[in-house]
């Protein structure tokens, strides 16, 4: 219905600008303003709302098509997404502890450049979300588990 509404509004706008038909004279008489500007403003405003709503509904449709292709229900997706978030939070917390230990170790050993690099990478990860230059991304924890983080597939 939104699509039909938007098409009709667009056709009315085009007809007012291009056509010599009945639409332009009706638009001029509608608010007794002698001009079609108020009608065009109303049509443009509602057209913008329609396009915005259509984009949101389209995004929701594409999301559910993706879920259908994966064979997931919305509830299963929410559960999986929550699990990924918990894993990511756990990974980030482990990384913070590891970073603090590495910074303390570098300070003890007098490795100022390594300490600064770790601090800068931690700041970039937390403030900007940049993880590519983090030297701890490739490290392993002492217990042998990977510190690569949860996959985003």
Summarize this, please?
It is built from 5 helices and no strands. The protein is mainly α.
Whole-number tally of structural domains: 2
Backbone CA Rg: 29 Å
Fraction of residues in helices?
Answer: over 70%
Mean pLDDT: 84
Category by helix and strand content:
mainly alpha
- Any low-confidence stretches, pLDDT <50, length ≥5? 139-153
Oligomer: single chain
Describe what you observe in this structure:
Helix 4 (74-109) runs antiparallel to helix 5 (112-128). The chain has two domains: 2-70; 90-148, no CATH class. 74% of the residues lie in helices and 0% in strands. It is mainly α.
List the helices and strands and how they pair.
Blueprint: H1 2-18, H2 22-30, H3 37-70, H4 74-109, H5 112-128
Name some characteristics of this structure.
153 residues, mainly alpha, 0% strand
